[in-house]
């Protein structure tokens, strides 16, 4: 268990000075106090008075808002979030919105009425969010963290994923491998996370002198069925000159792979295929999938940690809490591309 001596050692001060700093005594300079607070935050140390106050008020529940957990990516993220919350003695209340704005509003109102200690909102697939509900979380000073990206007009802490950068690097790699005609299968462009991936794709294409036609970006359901039906529809109508299909996530890519198999189009001999997320099944698919890796466990750890720090120090306005953390992405090359 972390003690005041551990905090003092990390901050480079005496234990008595660390104690004074944590109790907001005026005899400590602002510079010293800042060092001590940073050390306490890094070690997860809770001053006794703050711990008692928090224990008296807490419900021990964290609300998690997700669009769905059918996609293995979302299921894995939920698993790791729950694992991290347990380490901090919190229970998880999971609200599934199915991408519906009204359900989303109901879930957030339920969290408020349950007096949850904090809220984690995974922003993927959220399209028609209700700003007033988000403002209510802010007005009530309920610690809230957005996972995966933010929304215009919503000023909340974020753990961001380098979505544009990831798809940009993947597109550049595929161009370098000689691919020229891209079909991009996306979810609804109105969803922030999908729009960001489209932006990264278009940036890489334009920088390399490739024209992106409106028909080259197809909106569909970001799941196996969406990938399957869209591929059949596109390739049954005509014989397009596409030499690679880029999917907005791996889950959709599995549906594309199934459709191509039925159409007797070989991957990667006749056409390349790539996804995004690097879910656990991507490496063991019929044709192992080239994709973009998101470190899901790291994303969960950073999200819970950021929320936890905001819960601990919400009653200490002088504490400078981190407002944004970032999780990087990386291209993973497998046998679905040449």
TrEMBL record:
Which Gene Ontology terms cover its molecular function?
DNA-binding transcription factor activity; transcription cis-regulatory region binding
Q: What is the superkingdom listed in this entry's lineage? A: Bacteria
Keywords, A to Z, come to: DNA-binding, Transcription, Transcription regulation
User: Which InterPro entries does the record cross-reference, listed alphabetically?
Assistant: HTH_LacI, LacI/GalR-like_sensor, Lambda_DNA-bd_dom_sf, Peripla_BP_I
Q: Which Gene3D superfamilies match?
A: 3.40.50.2300, lambda repressor-like DNA-binding domains
Q: Which CDD domains match?
A: HTH_LacI, PBP1_LacI_sugar_binding-like
| Presence of the UniProt keyword Transit peptide in the record | no
Start and end residues of each HTH lacI-type domain: 2-56
Protein's name according to its UniProt entry: HTH-type transcriptional regulator DegA
Native organism is: Candidatus Atribacter allofermentans
Q: Which gene encodes it?
A: degA_2
């Amino acid at each position: 268990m972390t003690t005041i001596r551990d905090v003092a050692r990390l901050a480079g001060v005496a234990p008595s000075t660390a104690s004074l700093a944590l109790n907001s005594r005026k005899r400590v300079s602002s510079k010293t106090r800042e060092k001590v607070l940073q050390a306490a935050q890094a070690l997860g140390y809770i001053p006794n008075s703050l711990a008692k106050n928090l224990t008296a008020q807490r419900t021990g529940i964290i609300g998690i808002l997700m669009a769905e957990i059918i996609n293995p990516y979302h299921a894995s993220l939920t698993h790791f979030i729950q694992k991290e919350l347990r380490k901090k003695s919190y229970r998880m209340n999971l609200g599934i919105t199915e991408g519906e704005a009204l359900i989303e509003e109901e879930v957030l109102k339920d969290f408020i009425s349950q007096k949850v200690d904090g809220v984690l909102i995974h922003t993927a697939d959220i399209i028609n969010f209700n700003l007033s509900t988000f403002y209510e979380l802010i007005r009530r000073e309920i610690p809230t963290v957005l996972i995966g990206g933010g929304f215009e007009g919503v000023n909340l802490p974020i753990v961001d994923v380098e979505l544009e950068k990831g798809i940009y690097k993947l597109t550049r790699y595929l161009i370098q491998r000689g691919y020229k005609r891209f079909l991009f299968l996306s979810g609804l462009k109105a969803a922030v996370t999908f729009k960001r991936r489209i932006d990264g794709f278009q940036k890489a294409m334009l920088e390399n002198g490739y024209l992106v036609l409106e028909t080259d970006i197809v909106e569909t359901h970001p799941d196996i069925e969406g990938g399957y039906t869209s591929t059949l529809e596109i390739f049954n109508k005509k014989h397009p000159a596409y030499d690679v299909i880029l999917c907005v996530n791996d889950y959709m890519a599995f549906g594309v792979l199934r459709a191509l198999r039925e159409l007797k189009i070989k991957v990667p001999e006749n056409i390349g295929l790539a996804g995004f997320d690097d879910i656990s099944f991507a490496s063991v698919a019929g044709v192992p999938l080239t994709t973009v890796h998101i470190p899901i466990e790291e994303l969960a750890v950073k999200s819970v940690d950021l929320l936890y720090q905001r819960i601990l120090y919400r009653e200490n306005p002088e504490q400078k809490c981190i407002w944004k953390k970032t999780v990087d992405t990386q291209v993973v090359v497998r046998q679905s591309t040449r």
